[in-house]
Amino acid sequence: MTDTIEIKLGIAPIAWTNDDLPELGKENTFEQCISEMALSGFTGTEIGNKYPKDPIVLKSYLQPRKLEVASAWFSAYLTTEPYEDTQAAFIEHRDFLHAMGAGVIVVSEQGHSIQGQAVDLFTEKPIFTENEWASLTTGLEKLGHLAAEKNMKIVYHHHMGTGVQTTAEIDRLMTETDPELVSLLFDTGHLVFSGEDPIEIYKQYHDRIHHIHFKDIRQEVLSDVLASKDSFLTGVKKGVFTVPGDGLIDFKPIVEIITSHHYKGWVVVEAEQDPSRANPFEYALKARHYIKNIWGI
């Protein structure tokens, strides 16, 4: 395929150690994680809790392995806490990512989120009030201005168990925010898990998508999670997520539409699994080979 030269491939450390479920991968070291990322052919990483917080120290580990920082997750609480609280934490996060050379900041609103709670993922999903929507959209635009001070962008992560998960909620967020200030993260796994159409989302918002997560879904586990009314983290432990090429999602039309719209930036494999059941290095290799086969990069 053509026009892929400005696409860079990264992988997230959550397959090695899960920050939300520390018991998953607690035995895996930071050094093992980044070494296996590099060995499996990726050139970028997102940030996990085991990573050094000092940019100089972190670079000393990443540079010999020819790894860059693609981005890192930031939890916003714009719907439930004073904006100033989120702003202070965001500036610290922004400055760290800027020092590491990242161009985008992954932001997800965690006000009322149930993704870490032991409740039914769908029936207990938060629905924002009108006032909360206003706090979210105005707050995100303020964060967008702060990111622009460092020539960076915020990319909003739609996510299971949060107030921005569905197509309708993504549509509202995009409609009510300034395209110059608020961009979108495109996550295949969360869209399919929620029952959305990733192709349609990409078509609609391709000009605002500046960061991509590739994760796949295991159909049999998804069916079990839905039937059992499981929580998000229970679904993760059961293995609902996997790497591209190992689940139900056909990534070929997805990479075709990404290429056709001349996407530039990171595509990050992110598949939170139990590493004792899904060896992270083996699955990283599987993902890398699959992407090479269908995309030529």
TrEMBL record:
Pathway: Polyol metabolism; myo-inositol degradation into acetyl-CoA; acetyl-CoA from myo-inositol: step 2/7
Domain Xylose isomerase-like TIM barrel: 39-286
Pfam families linked to this entry: AP_endonuc_2 (PF01261)
Gene Ontology MF terms in the entry: myo-inosose-2 dehydratase activity
The reaction(s) this protein catalyses: scyllo-inosose = 3D-3,5/4-trihydroxycyclohexane-1,2-dione + H2O
Cofactor: Co(2+); Mn(2+); glutathione
InterPro entries given in the database record: IolE, IolE/MocC, IolE/XylAMocC-like, Xyl_isomerase-like_sf, Xyl_isomerase-like_TIM-brl
EC id: 4.2.1.44
Record-stated family: Belongs to the IolE/MocC family.
PANTHER family assigned: HYDROXYPYRUVATE ISOMERASE, INOSOSE DEHYDRATASE
Name of the protein in its database record: Inosose dehydratase
Gene source species: Vagococcus proximus
Lineage, broadest ranks: Bacteria, Bacillati, Bacillota, Bacilli, Lactobacillales
